Amino acid sequence: MIQYGMSIEIELKAWVDDSNGLKTRIDSLACFSGSFEKGDAYWHSVAPVPLPPSGVRIREAMYIDVAGRVTRHTWVTYKVKEVREGIEVNDEHEFEVSDKAAFEGLLRRFGLEPGVTKHKQGWAWQYAGITVELALVAGLGWFVELEILTDTGNEDIVADARTRLLTLLQQLGIPEEKIESRYYTEMLQALPLR
């Protein structure tokens, strides 16, 4: 989802065994938005700098909409991450930069260095206020991601969003046991070095 500023993202991700079958099920339920390719680099402090534990993410993204129009963006994101009952509730701040190299230079001057990277590609849909992505995450495999954006993380909003996300997951035929509560960065860092 592309947005500027701050929002609370409430999301879940689940492992996918049959990506082609799931893509067909999602197509039958949701409105196709387009395809994407996203490359993320997570920058972390090498000195005591007040940063969220997740660091700063620089995302280079390419989107192809249903009409075949290609757009490219470089997004900077920092967020305070939290997992509540297997569902991520993240206080996210995001903005676009026009010069990635210049911004990376600024991060280096502030004492940050790049860490883990993530690459994913796939397709996106919209369904009843939920963004649905079917994505291949390099080194990990296929996942379905379901996300609702709100302007507050209060418990009633989160509980309602959780119910909506789990209901859609069930409609897609994915058991709750497939939900992955670890962050992608945790899973990527745990991979053996090649």
Strand content: over 45%
Unreliable residue runs: none
Compute the CA-based radius of gyration: 17 Å
How do the SSEs run, as a string of H and E? EHEEEEEHEEEHH
Tell me the count of domains: 1
CATH class, named Mainly Beta
CATH arch. level architecture: Beta Barrel
Total number of beta strands:
9
Instruction: List the total number of helices.
Output: 4
Q: Classify the fold: give the CATH topology.
A: Hypothetical Protein Pfu-838710-001
Distance between the termini: 32 Å
* Order of strands across the main sheet: 1-6-4-3-2-7-8-9
Helix share bin: 10-25%
Mean pLDDT: 90
Shape call: globular
The helix/strand class is alpha+beta
CATH H-level superfamily title: Hypothetical Protein Pfu-838710-001
The largest sheet is: 8 strands, antiparallel, barrel
Task: Offer a concise description of the structure.
This protein is of the alpha+beta class and 194 residues long. The chain has helices spanning 19-29, 100-109, 155-171, 184-190; strands spanning 5-15, 31-45, 56-65, 70-80, 83-84, 87-96, 112-127, 130-137, 141-150.
